[in-house]
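User: My collaborator sent over this chain with a note saying "see what the structure looks like." That's all I know about it. Can you take a look?
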Amino acid sequence: MARPAAGLTTRKPSQRAEKQSAAGSSAIHGHDSTDFAAGLNVAADVKSAVTSWIVWLRDERRVAALTLDAYYRDLIDFLAFTAQHLGNAPTLGDLAALAKADFRAWMAARAQRKLQATSTARALSAVKSFYRHAIKRGLIAETGITALRTPKLPRSLPKPLNAGEALEAVSAIGDEARHAWIGKRDIAVLTLLYGCGLRISEALGLKRGDIPGGGTAMPLLRITGKGNKTRMVPVLPVVTEAIQAYLAVCPFAGDAGDPLFYGARGGPLQPRLIQGAMQQLRARLGLPETATPHALRHSFATHLLAGGGDLRAIQELLGHASLSTTQRYTEVDAAQLLAVYNAAHPRAAK
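Assistant: Without extra context I'll predict from the sequence alone. Here is the result:
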């Protein structure tokens, strides 16, 4: 629980805000290990298999909370469609008997609902994971979904801000905050995103004890990213200064295990508040719609690469599991160079 910082206005954190924060952190938060499938229109053996799969993902695979949420929702969507498609609450036998055409019908129904191809690709991955889990445990035999190909996705490039836009966003985010300390807080968050290349969930997941003390020219920050993988990220002096400026005026004190960033009522700061502040900032500064908090992470990588940064080093800083993910930034850099060439070279238009 946050305590009012000494010498600052006393504020009592809102218990309601903290409860809502905790409840909103996961679609399956608060469920015990026996009721993950409660309320589903499926047979008892399917409910048992769903629970087994969720527990395996959570406890053995240790997937990130947001990924677990998404997979859970995707499987529920598939099972709801299947119940309607078959006209009865499906059993494991029914699921095993589904053909490729049945799975394609589900994907077609998602397309009719105007769901993005990327969302359907993730949903198919979730359903495949459920089936593989059931097959491995001998609950069902091999089925058509294991050979079903993921739909082709349009290859999109990261959309970073240019250096001027990124710096302006970081410095101006706090200008119209309701309280001075909230302005300092928002500046500190964006400085972490752009200065360290953090995901917003990583920045808002930091505890007070995670922030390194002084004594070194370039301290390191231990970040726990996707899949609970850890990495060490250098902390620039400007990042340290922004965090210290926020802590100096934050009305909530805390121990090493308490959140670094607080909301106005004393609960942990939620991503939607930073996203909303960026939305207002876009309108005020005339920034593109792609100017989101995550765009600052893209900007971090793109600007490092443009400045001669090593691709492998950038991969480590970003916490990418695959180098191919980081290589997308080389395409961004090449595209920007081509744009400069086309705009400036006298023969480019001929």
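A starting point for your reply to your collaborator: Residues 6-26 have pLDDT under 50 and may be disordered.
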